[in-house]
Amino acid sequence: MNDDNNARNTIIFFVLAVTLLIGYQVLVLGPAAERRRAAQENARAEQVQNPDANPGAGLTAPTEGVVHVDRRQAVSASPRVAIQTPSLRGSISLRGARIDDLYLTQYRETLESDANVELLRPVGAEGAYFATSGWTGQNVPGLPGPDTLWTQTSQGPLSPGNPVVLTYDNGQGLVFTRTISVDDQYMFTIADTVVNRTGQALTLAPFGSIRRIGLPDGAGRDMISHEGAVGVLDDRLVLEKYKDWRKEGRIVRETTGGWLGVSDKYWMAALIPDQRRPVEAEFRVTGGEENPTYQANFLGEAMTVAPGATVTNTTRLFAGAKRAEVLRGYSQSLGVPDLDNAIDWGMFWFLTRPIFLLLEWFYGLVGNFGVAILLLTVVVKIVFFPLANKSFESMSKMKKLAPQMEEIKKRHKDDPAKMQQETLALYQREKINPVAGCLPLLVQIPVFYALYKVLFVTIEMRHAPFFGWIQDLSARDPLSIWNAFGLFPWDPAAMGGFIGGILNGPLHLGPVVLLYGFTMWLMTSMNPPAPDPVQRQIFGLMPILFTFIMAPFAVGLLVYWVWNNILSILQQYVIMHRNGVENPIDGAIARLRGGGKAAP
């Protein structure tokens, strides 16, 4: 009767666990996502655009209300210079000399779409996002501002090897020249020159500014990747998520060298001031609750420009995809510190970095990130092979001793202390460590998390195909039981709301996660049974529970875990077979051959 009660309690426990999992999705995550979407819609409806202006002290700027227009209208509202590179397309606004129209030609919004990823957006359109630079100073006549119309004095579009030259004569003795060049990746170089013909010495300071008005769609929905303010200032990494950045209001750092910008999960716009000169770097949020403007600014040290003299300041702008190889290359060639820290390596950076480098190396060998994940799994198994071997040997011995342990339990069922004493004595005689079976799993948890982080935040994994139906290792399995594994062209996530959240969450049961559940069940079946009936039933239900937990994870992570389970099963089977221990694989083989149950 006691065992029946235990079984009933175990079933109740797991029903409650699954109910809590689903309830959390429905009552907490679902409403939170709806509130975020509503807030973003309100922000768009009431947003007031704030174009860049001569920042003055602290790089502040007056707010100018702009009625939202279509993006194409916003682009056509100003004369422009085209940008054409192998990686970028867009244009520079001659009004304000802003870089504010940019697409990444090597990346698509979705696998199904041909539309390129949009990075920067002009003032006047919803969600404006742009970069500018220039000069500021007190009592300096006619500094160019956001509405200044510059003149192009060079030929053709901006492209690698063909810089654009813009000029502005303020008619009061100052002549400004802005030369913008770009490489074949994502780096702009902006040289600002001013000639003083006023007849008196002037004091000017260079500045740079990146501004994003409102939040991008989906910002802040996940907890594992960083989106918001990012930079390396005074040799220290600065990371502020949008929510914390908004709460902080203003963050100021004095630094010589370094960089700062605004980061999305895969994309970034970042300013790189002259690495030899001190600057005041600032992250600032202005505007009301419904129309925030997120700014990454720097203000350089003042320069005295004598009559007839010329001064030049050079600023670089990174605007593109956060590819580790590209970022590392810029750090080395330009002397920019830790630019690849724009990728959110996380608190386990000492694992995520080498795992990514190993994946990248394997990818260079085989040309498929899915196969690279399989090879990485083999390396992890080799590293932990001695520990896993000891663990499996210990578990095999425990399974072989299961009848003796059951006998001890029956003999001393009314004396738990004596039962525990004899069980421990049996372990000592047979040199078995019951804790050893948990060690391989425990030591692999950080590796599991680090791989999850790598798959989630590195753009190299975005839209990376494997084989067959798996065309994006960083996304969840596109097939599920709800679309009959792809027989019906239907995405459960499209339903939205309660049903969509559940079907696209813990009930997103695709073929890979079902294979994961099967391999986990097989591993559990090969382990020695727990001495307590309740524990036995709990361990028996664990594969089911973890199948639901793992269902919404990236399919690349599931590929790793399934392959890891298969290798573990093979290793454990060899050890059990060698020691003559009964196991489900030999039993299945015997039944297939018609020989009944396999002999121990």
From TrEMBL:
Subcellular location field: Cell inner membrane; Cell membrane
Residue runs in coiled coils: none
Entry's transmembrane regions: 12-30, 369-388, 432-452, 493-518, 538-563
Occurrences of domain Membrane insertase YidC N-terminal (ranges): 80-357
Primary site of residence: membrane
Family the entry assigns: Belongs to the OXA1/ALB3/YidC family. Type 1 subfamily.
HAMAP family the UniProt entry points to: YidC_type1
Function field: Required for the insertion and/or proper folding and/or complex formation of integral membrane proteins into the membrane. Involved in integration of membrane proteins that insert both dependently and independently of the Sec translocase complex, as well as at least some lipoproteins. Aids folding of multispanning membrane proteins.
Name recorded for this polypeptide: Membrane protein insertase YidC
Native source species: Peiella sedimenti
Lineage: Bacteria, Pseudomonadati, Pseudomonadota, Alphaproteobacteria, Caulobacterales
